UniProtKB/TrEMBL annotation:
GO terms for biological process: lysine biosynthetic process via diaminopimelate. It comes from Sphingomonas tagetis. Coiled coil: none annotated. Residues 43-287 form the Orn/DAP/Arg decarboxylase 2 N-terminal domain. This is Pyridoxal-dependent decarboxylase, exosortase A system-associated. Residues 36-383 form the Orn/DAP/Arg decarboxylase 2 C-terminal domain. Keywords: Pyridoxal phosphate. The modification N6-(pyridoxal phosphate)lysine is found at K65. The active site is at C356.
């Protein structure tokens, strides 16, 4: 028997799994299986809680790569101050739901056509290198538009406890600290509309003190750079990195503590940043817990000492739960038998998908109530980096259906 992660609090204490007011069985009856259901009511509650915890001066941005489903963007866009995109495709989706003035575009390897689309729309480009900066300036000059440009800084520290480290070392992301002042001067001299700094030090951290410490270091770094350049950045994007509990023993980030500490840091910020605005950008913290992947048991089989529940969907839709997306050691996401949430668990079972690869394992030897063909298995924490981060074409099954549900989306 192996442990699994905690079921998000929105779905505990239920006899039959209910998502946005309807049972999993209902959702599957209407939309088929496998299926992702996202409850935007949960997203609204989380954003409101975070908004209340953060100082007013700090906006919340949604990094849409966590869940770029158009219906999700429509629901989330009004809840947040900005959208962060990472490709021309994401930019086009974001522009449908948010004013360009509140969209920023980060990511290495932006092509000229992507730079041009952002400049024409009036979105902010978070520049990843000097070369990209020159291309953006050239395109702006050709179009007769002063491009909105921010500089992504490769910080000289990293977010401790971060699942995905993005600072403190050589990186395809951002410009090394020592090179930033010269680049910002170049942008200003060339007549660009310089928007400030984007400083992203890591992702998926559950370490509240580390997040607090990193945010303080990020504000200090922005102040140091601004002093050296001698100009106030209009916006300092402090990155994000708030994780969610996926695995046994994980505890959530204490956002009240983070918000209070950031409030103190901003209240005491150096004069140079007096007129700056601030933002944090989050993906998985905002949407990760709102989504459930529902898949139906096709076969129950015994092999050796192990019992397998073979389901109609697997890593082709929800790669992350199989442990093959950004984790080193495979551990179990929380899963449940949707129709019997409150039943006593039986012997260990492994939940596997239909793909011909041993990687296709959604849960490894977990304690679940007795289940067999026709039962719906719920895989939680499927709201971020689920469908869009999975190899849907691999083995040629149909893509999973995705449904956005909740107060405004019946
Ligand atoms: C991916 C990404 C995010 C979102 O990360 P989460 O872990 O989903 O919060 C935010 N900012 C940048 C620059 C990113 O690349």
């Amino acid at each position: 028997m192996k442990p699994m992660g905690p079921i998000p609090p929105y779905f505990t204490d239920q006899r039959e799994l209910t998502i946005a007011g309807r049972t999993a069985a209902d959702w599957v009856a209407e939309h088929g299986s496998p299926l992702f259901v996202y409850d935007v009511g949960i997203v609204a509650e989380r954003v409101a809680r975070l908004r209340a915890a953060l100082p007013e001066l700090c906006e919340i941005h949604f990094a849409i790569k966590a869940n770029p489903l158009p219906a999700m963007l429509e629901a989330v866009a009004p809840m947040v101050g900005g959208l962060d995109v990472a490709s021309g495709g994401e930019l086009a989706k974001a522009l449908k739901v948010k004013d360009a003035a509140h969209i920023s575009f980060a990511g290495p390897g932006k092509r000229d056509a992507e730079l041009e689309a952002a400049i024409v729309a009036g979105a902010t480009l978070n520049l990843e290198s000097e070369g990209e900066a020159e291309r953006a300036l050239t395109i702006g000059a050709r179009l007769g538009i002063a491009p909105r440009l921010a500089v992504r800084v490769n910080p000289d520290f990293e977010l401790r406890g971060s699942g995905m480290k993005m600072g403190g070392r050589a990186s395809p992301f951002g410009v090394d600290v020592a090179r930033v002042p010269a680049l910002v001067r170049r942008l200003i001299d060339a007549g660009a509309d310089w928007r400030g700094f984007h400083i992203f030090a890591g992702s998926q951290s559950l370490d509240t003190p580390a997040i607090v410490e990193t945010q303080a270091a990020t504000v200090a770094l922005a102040a140091r750079l601004a002093d050296e350049i001698g100009v106030t950045p209009p916006l300092v994007n402090l990155g994000g990195g708030f994780g969610i509990p996926y695995f046994s023993g994980d505890l959530p980030v204490d956002v009240d503590t983070v918000g209070a500490a950031l409030g103190e840091v901003l209240a005491a910020r150096p004069e140079r940043l007096a007129d700056s605005k601030f933002a944090i950008e989050l993906g998985r913290w905002i949407v990760g817990e709102c989504g459930v992947y529902l898949t139906t048991v096709i076969d129950r089989k015994q092999s050796g000492e192990e019992t397998f529940l073979v389901c109609d969907g697997g890593l082709n839709h929800q790669l992350a739960a199989s442990g093959n997306f950004g984790t080193v050691v495979r551990r179990n996401y929380p899963v449940a038998v949707a129709g019997r949430m409150d039943a006593e668990p039986g012997d260990a079972v492994s939940v596997v998908g239909p793909l011909c690869t041993p990687l296709d394992r959604l849960a490894d030897r977990v304690a679940l109530p007795d289940a067999g063909p026709g039962d719906v298995i719920a895989v939680f924490l499927a709201g971020a980096y689920g469908a869009s981060a999975s190899p849907a074409a691999f083995l040629g099954h149909d893509p999973a259906c995705e449904v956005v549900a909740g107060p405004a989306h019946p």
